[in-house]
Amino acid sequence: MPVTLRTSVPIPLTDQAIATHFVSFSGFSDGKEHIAIIYGAPEEQDTPLVRIHSECLTGDVFGSQRCDCGEQLQEAQRLMAVQGGVVLYLRQEGRGIGLYNKLDAYDLQDQGMDTYQANEQLGFDHDQRNFAPAVEMLVALGLKRIRLLSNNPHKADELLAAGIEISERVDTGVYVNQHNAGYLKAKVDQQAHRIKLPISAKSVDSQ
Ligand SMILES: [Zn+2]
């Protein structure tokens, strides 16, 4: 059964004049409640901007400085307020291990592990995220050709493999601080994320 559109509800967002709709779906392969936030009318654009964002309660809602999720989401919202687009918000907290396990992983990181080692220490793959629901939403929305806002090459690879055409990869900004520098460095060193870290940030992790 293909994923189908369930409900599209207008929800105005703070500081954004552009029309925004929250869209729900039926039939996700993983049974979770993922959501698309539609800015303007991307279906009328040749190559709408798309951000695939995995839920991060601590960063998205509370502004945690241990990661860069909140800043990346805000950046996507700023861009889409101007040019339209879609945020595909995936309900897979902590790279798919859940909120409590993520907090356990933070605890391990404070004892010296990096973000991937910590997940493995807890018995998980280093990254359990599943991007199939993002593809399912794009197909249900009729968006087969997009510009992808991401610095994660693995997301682009998964979309391409699923038949989504990516006309352009738009890197997200660099949001480094003293608390997340090691986390960002691990993303660059181990998973080839395209984050241009300043020299000062690269040295933080080796201290
Ligand atoms: Zn985060």
TrEMBL record:
Q: Which residues bind Zn(2+)?
A: C56, C67, C69
Q: Name the Gene Ontology molecular function terms of this record.
A: GTP binding; GTP cyclohydrolase II activity; zinc ion binding
| UniProt cross-references to Pfam families, sorted A to Z | GTP_cyclohydro2
Cofactors named for this entry: Zn(2+)
Instruction: Report the function annotation for this chain.
Output: Catalyzes the conversion of GTP to 2,5-diamino-6-ribosylamino-4(3H)-pyrimidinone 5'-phosphate (DARP), formate and pyrophosphate.
The record's comment on cofactor binding reads:
Binds 1 zinc ion per subunit.
What name goes with this protein? GTP cyclohydrolase-2
Q: Which family does it belong to?
A: In the N-terminal section; belongs to the DHBP synthase family. Belongs to the GTP cyclohydrolase II family.
Reaction catalyzed: GTP + 4 H2O = 2,5-diamino-6-hydroxy-4-(5-phosphoribosylamino)-pyrimidine + formate + 2 phosphate + 3 H(+)
Q: Which residues form the GTP cyclohydrolase II domain?
A: 20-170
Q: Where does GTP bind?
A: R51, I52, H53, S54, E55, Q72, E93, G94, R95, T115, S150, K155
What EC number(s) is this enzyme filed under?
3.5.4.25
Q: Name one GO cellular component term.
A: cytosol
- According to its UniProt record, this protein's enzyme class is hydrolase
Q: Which HAMAP family match?
A: RibA
Kindly state which keywords UniProt assigns to this record, in alphabetical order: GTP-binding, Hydrolase, Metal-binding, Nucleotide-binding, Riboflavin biosynthesis, Zinc
Residues the record marks as active site: D127 (proton acceptor), R129 (nucleophile)
Q: In which pathway does it act?
A: Cofactor biosynthesis; riboflavin biosynthesis; 5-amino-6-(D-ribitylamino)uracil from GTP: step 1/4
